[in-house]
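yo

u said u wanted the structure for the complex thing, so here. seqs first:
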Amino acid sequence: MTTHAVHRGTRTSRTGVLLAIAVIIGLLSVPFWAGRADMRLIVEMAYFLALAQMWNLMAGYAGLVSIGQQAYVGIGGYALFALAIHADVPPLLALPLAGLIAALIAVPTAFVVFRLRGAYFAIGTWVAAEVFRLVLAQVTALGGGTGQSLPATIVRSIADSVDGRDRLIYFTGIALAVCATALVFLLLRSRHGLALTALRDAEGAAESLGVDRFRTQLWVYIVAALGTGMIGALIFLQKLRISPDAAFSVSDWTANVIFIVVIGGIGRIEGPIVGTLVFFALRALLADFGTWYMIVLGGVAVIVMLKAPQGLWGLVADRFGLDFFPVRRLVRSWERGPPARNDA
Amino acid sequence: MTAILRLEGVSKSFGALKVIDDLSFSLRRGEALGVIGPNGAGKSTMFNLITGGLTPGAGRILFDERDITRLTPPARCRLGIGRSYQIPQPFGGMTVFENVLVGATFGSGKPERQCHESCIAVLETTGLLGKANRLAGTLTLLERKRLELARALSIGPKVLLLDEIAGGLTEGECQALVETIRTIHGNGVSLIWIEHVVHALLAAVSRLVVINFGALLAEGEPQAVMNDPRVQSVYMGIDEDAA
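structre next:
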């Protein structure tokens, strides 16, 4: 009698867990020995990683290639400012609320942009983001077209000292990045992950096997908006100033993020991590070269897309069989029943 | 016997081209029905109309006496209509086991863990158990065809729609496939099988429908249909095969 069991996990995944714990502990110790500039840089990396995970979830797994995610960065940022200034909500509490507001706004938006497919969907999301930018520029209570700063009293309410504030924002940033990565990982391991991957690989076949495309993609879009909205709120909590152009910047919050995901490896959880490291390394390297920075970045993206469409992590992972975030289900067979079960 | 699936005056046009023209026929409960017809006769389009990938311009489709003409593909799947694709459409980034698991869990609405056993059973029936952990994108043509069958079975179908599943296989492979299909039919699944490999088809079906230019040309007992002069004239060359 042959018995079968389904299990998850690979050899590298156990190493992966240890590695992840080590990195997180290392990151949590940073505020106790590093300077302000280093902490700010790591927070920036953390929110780009979180944004990249959200974009990768949509484009790499759900087949929703959006170039309008800046809409939710902006909405999250503005929601935080509105809640803190006009409703006296403590900024850190306003963070999750900002995510919820972004998710709520994503629902009607989805019903509009989901009418479009493929490239039209991409352009539609961008147009939607522009509409939000133009609308918010009209709201004088939120600073209109010129934007506004977070009042000093609210800034002080986050924490008494500058150091304390930096630390809180730092830990929040790390938490968001870890949660975004964990969310994508857990989602992919779940039943919904099966549906997403199936839709990505063969949409028609997935639907004829009972997968509801609209509902699956709608949920991913809303979850991504929730995450992106919270990240947006954190970004502008760190910057302490918001304006429509900064909040809804397609190059900052979408082009850079697409670069990160594509370079690192689209449709892989490790992709955004590798991509974020490469992006920030290139930025540091090219900081003194002005416009050349963007040109080199674009050049690198083109070369990677042509030579390694699976991204840099894809190259490494496929060569060495690495998989730190195993989402696959593997069948193991025994000739006799395993000790744990007493099949005949 | 009652019909489990019935097409009533179904038509479908792409622009000026009428692909399905007032097509009516039914599949009886527990029956194995073969469908033949020249390339471009509208056979695959007919399947897409039944599974909901396409919506007919006119007519009705009934499943178990219920009108399903406006249902979405996933809803029809959950009623028990399983299909295989002529050109295999594996989920290339997933393992063979996961490919089958998709249909098992979403086709039934059951939680994933409750479906593991039925998936193993389906893989065993289709001879894919040894390949369960392979990425579907790396399978050979025969394995892909088997995976198409396995996925269609994974939903626990009442009606199975097979689209040229024997095409491109060797004689031995083809015979093994016919055996598998006969076993499935023997377990009480009604099926419609579109096939160009007529001798394989005739080994498994008890009634034959011929479609030409999207309309019914002939239907009935397989040998009688194959000997019909109208069928022979549109389907030249296959008469010797069937004799």
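Chain A touches chain B at residues 4, 6, 190-191, 194-195, 197-198, 200-202, 204-213, 267, 328-331, 333 (CB under 8 Å). Residues 9 and 177 of chain A are 22 Å apart (CA to CA).
cya
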